[in-house]
Design a protein that fits this description.
The chain is mainly α. Helix content is 63%, strand content 0%. It has 15 helices and no strands. α6 (107-118) runs parallel beside α8, α8 crosses α9 and α8 packs antiparallel against α15. The longest helix has 24 residues, at 185-208. It is elongated and about 75 Å long. It starts with 15 loop residues before the first helix and ends with a helix.
Length: 327
């Protein structure tokens, strides 16, 4: 019996010109997405392509951009506008007092722990902000305490041991956690480990970029987090930096990011892979900074972890005592 794979009507047509362009690009992602487009009649939807190829949607979009640049695909249609984010309600003093007087609510214990951690009695506006985190976001009290401890640790690291964040700042951080799906203790602990690693790696990567007199700003942290997720070791990041300076005569974050994304799409991550597989690699070797370095391991739990766990254990003990008292 003939192999059904090669029966008439089951064959996709690929021109030699398209094949040559795909081969010269060196991008396996672009080739796979092109096969997907052939199979789907040229129709592209980010989510559908990602499901079919078992990718993240951003990876599919990046491959489509490569195909568009080669003239093998149309640009992706504009994304629909994001859904409106619901605004939190305006809580009143009566709402706060009612919750504080509720013997079955964990909110009073949460208030006590946050006051202890910040070393002050919360004002009415502070209580409204904290209640917004508790009621509007629906985060468990233990997760809220982990967010508080992280904010305190970060604020003191930046501004000194006597400085403490304000409750609205903590509210913004907690809402961001909720939006990212950090809504369980397990997810919060994993998120804190990632934040600790990013904080440590940010300083190391800034040094590779010859920036040693300041911490990374928010946009720079976004770039650095993406490079960490791509799995680049220090020497590869240094190579991308040197190419950027050679081309732009100074550091240019978007340009360097495009270099690293291109390597990532080609599956080139180690210096050896880059030097052998990147046709546009720099002609001079990398400098001594970062030479021989390997990707770091996550940092051991620090002071923020210890304080956060202590806060969470106190909250759990209080809730357990409250449950026993109600039985």
């Amino acid at each position: 019996m003939a192999d059904p794979t090669f029966l008439p009507g089951s064959i996709l047509s690929l021109s030699s010109a398209a094949a040559d362009r795909l081969l010269s690009s060196g991008s396996g992602d672009a080739a796979l997405l092109y096969l997907y487009l052939l199979r789907s009649g040229g129709q592209y939807q980010s989510a559908g392509a990602a499901r079919a190829l078992k990718w993240e949607p951003a990876r599919a979009d990046a491959a489509l951009s490569l195909l568009h640049g080669m003239g093998l695909a149309q640009a992706a249609p504009p994304s629909p506008p994001p859904a409106a984010v619901p605004e939190p309600p305006e809580y009143t003093s009566a709402d706060i007092n009612r919750e504080l007087e509720n013997a079955a609510s964990p909110f009073p214990a949460l208030v006590a722990e946050v006051q202890r951690r910040l070393g002050k009695v919360l004002s009415t506006n502070d209580l409204k902000s904290l209640y917004t985190i508790y009621d509007f976001s629906g985060l468990p009290p233990e997760v809220i305490l982990l967010a508080v401890s992280w904010c305190v640790e970060e604020y003191q690291r930046k501004y000194g041991p006597s400085r403490l964040p304000r409750i609205p700042q903590i509210q913004r951080e907690a809402i961001q956690w909720k939006e990212r799906g950090v809504d369980t203790v397990e997810a919060a602990e994993a998120h804190l480990k990632r934040l600790s690693l990013l904080r440590e790696r940010s300083g190391q990567i800034l040094a590779l970029l010859d920036i040693r007199d300041r911490p990374a700003v928010a946009r720079e942290k976004q770039y650095i987090a993406a490079w960490i997720d791509m799995g680049f070791p220090d020497e590869a990041i240094r190579l991308a930096y040197e190419r950027t300076v050679m081309k732009k005569q100074s550091m240019n974050w978007p340009y360097m990011d495009s270099i690293l994304k291109s390597w990532h799409q080609k599956g080139l991550h180690t210096p050896e892979q880059i030097r052998s597989g990147d046709s546009a690699r720099p002609r001079r070797p990398a400098g001594p900074a970062g030479a021989g370095a390997t990707a770091p391991q996550p940092a051991a739990p620090g002071e923020a972890d210890r304080r956060a766990r202590e806060d969470m254990e106190r909250m759990r003990a209080f809730l357990k005592q409250q449950d026993q008292g109600g039985n």
